[in-house]
Amino acid sequence: MTSVNRAVAAVKPHRGGRPTDAKSQPRAGDPSGTFRRQRKFPEAHIGLAFVSPMVIGVIVLCLIPFISVIWYSLHDWDVFTGSFEFIGLGNYARLVNDAVAAKSLGVTGLFMATLMIVNIVLAMLLALLVNQRLRGVSAFRAIYFAPVVVAVVAWVIIWQFLLASNGGINGFLAMVGVEGPNWLRDPNTALYAVVIVQVFKGVGMNMVLFLAALQGVPSELKEAARIDGASNWRIFWSVVLPMLSPTLLLVMILTSIGALDVFAPIQVLTQGGPSNSTLVLSYYMYQTAFERQDFGYGSTLGVVLFVIVLALTAVQWRLRKVWVHDEV
Amino acid sequence: MRSRTSKAVLYVLLVVAAIPFIYPILWMVFSSFKPASEIFAVPPRLLPDRWTLDAWPKVFTENPFLQQYANSLYIAVVVTLLTIVVAALAGYAFARIRFPFAGGLFLLLLSGMMLPPEVTVIPIFRWASDLGLIDTHWPLILLPVFGSGGIVATFVFRQFFLGLPAEIEEAARLDGLGRLQIFWRIAMPLAGPAIATVAILQFLKSFNTYFEALIFLKTPEMLTVGVGLTRYQDMYGEPMWSTQLAATTLTVIPMLIVFLFAQRQFVESLSRTGLK
């Protein structure tokens, strides 16, 4: 998941690799070309053979289903009578008039925005903290990362207890004289409660990515700034942060896609409630398709989910030119 | 030199920040030794008032827990091994072999990565029904290998093999080795760091699978441990809290122990592959 940005950047030079190149370019160490004649298969075939299991798998299990889902979204599909009727953009018209879908889009946006801000700020702060030269700091690094290796359902089940009206969180609050809300049953807090659970589950991964980037900042740069009389804050803002910006972009894209993909926490903690306050799009799609057996409209919601992922990724990728500092 | 007070402040921050990561896990472990009535005691306590083992045997009698655990483990192992082979082959070819349509096929993989599983699950569910694969482990094995996890693994391997010195391969070629032999006997043995990263990511991803398991599996004996954890109910449909927490403890602790022993490798290999 981490090498996406480099992978994307590397697509371009690869395009030039035309089939003729392989034949016309003698390799170093093989000037006579005799070596090539001994081979049973030309390189091009071998290359295709090597990538074919992955490529065929992705075509069968990602791309064909994706085209199918667009096709399904144009149908009214009744599982019980077995009817599968083409209705053109009927499902999309239904979507426009669906107040629940509108609500779900709002919830999805709010969830993603909150999760991204909290997750990224916290990941950055933790990375700065565990980047200090202190004895025992690596133990804390391990602690912050540990929930990443815990099965997501297990983590969510624990927090379900802690967030109950008479659970541990409110117990802590009671100790300082605050009466906590019923986090998961109150429409005003449920979404934020899910965000908190999700953030502590995954923030360790982003912390590690930031930490690696922090350690890649040359110390001479910081020293130079210090000699020029810059404050710590100024050094972070003007020297360190620009060096972190490629990582920040990667973390933003990964975190936003992950936020759209949230399912287990919603299913276990709130089932989309109370009063649809946590009904993110992926969960609404699941309910529509697999609980109400409305596969046509469910497909439509799936297509919408994909369009959002695509748009978000594209926007962030475009905006990188504005704020991402290129090291090379 | 840093002053004593600023050091103290940093330690306080480290400890305070650790609470939300560590408290839930401690609470889970201790609560599995509480009688059900104590779990929601007011005010809440971390340690049980009365220690009891009542909940623990029910982990295995109320649900086929061991079977579910074994299911999760073997699925994760198969997914990991299969991913390493398929993704390393593809990553190697993208990095070291010139072949037609390489750029196009690479873009195709990229586009596959942007598909959340929720988007494609309806057609896959329909095919799985037609092929009789519902309530089998096939979807849980194939989807991560050829979904975003496998694609990311391909990128990790490609990136790694791009950095491999060409001379090593040239020498092997002069010795008359074919591409498959070079891949298997020269490149793969050198790819330890990439293999470690892919193994960690795919194992965790598979062990974490919830959505697909919920959709494709039905009978308790076929379930993976994640979905199994949500099925602890007594005959009246009431949740069995302590038992659920005992099962959760059994799910979480082995992974944490493995992590403690290998945490340096975890953190290092993930950060190294991430950013260069």
What does this structure look like?
- The complex is a heterodimer of chains A (328) and B (276).
- Chain A is an all-alpha fold.
- Chain A has 2 domains: 43-86, no CATH class; 92-323, MetI-like (MetI-like fold), CATH 1.10.3720.10.
- Chain A has 15 helices and 2 strands.
- The two termini of chain A are 22 Å apart.
- With 276 residues, chain B is an all-alpha fold.
- Helix content of chain B is 74%, strand content 0%.
- Chain B contains 14 helices and no strands.
- Chain B has helices at residues 4-31, 36-39, 55-61, 65-96, 102-113, 117-130, 138-145, 148-162, 166-174, 179-190, 192-208, 211-216, 225-229, 241-274.
- The interface between A and B is large, with 120 and 118 residues.
List keywords for this structure.
heterodimer; A: about 325 residues; mainly alpha; MetI-like fold; 2 domains; two-stranded antiparallel sheet; about 70% helix; about 0% strand; globular; disordered N terminus; B: about 280 residues; 14 helices
Give the structure's gist in a few sentences.
The complex is a heterodimer of chains A (328) and B (276). Chain A is 71% helix and 2% strand. Chain A has helices spanning 4-15, 19-24, 34-38, 43-72, 90-96, 99-130, 137-149, 152-162, 168-175, 190-215, 219-227, 232-260, 264-269, 281-291, 295-323; strands spanning 75-78, 83-86.
Query: Mean pLDDT of chain A, rounded to whole units?
Result: 84
Specify the oligomeric state: heterodimer
User: How does the overall form of chain B come out from the CA principal axes?
Assistant: globular
CATH C-level name of the largest domain in chain A: Mainly Alpha
Order of helices and strands of chain A: HHHHEEHHHHHHHHHHH
Number of strands of chain A: 2
Largest sheet of chain B: none
What is the H/E string of chain B?
HHHHHHHHHHHHHH
Based on the structure given, which CATH architecture of the largest domain in chain A is correct?
Orthogonal Bundle
Helix tally of chain B equals 14
The CATH homologous superfamily name of the largest domain in chain A equals: MetI-like
- What's the average pLDDT of chain B? 90
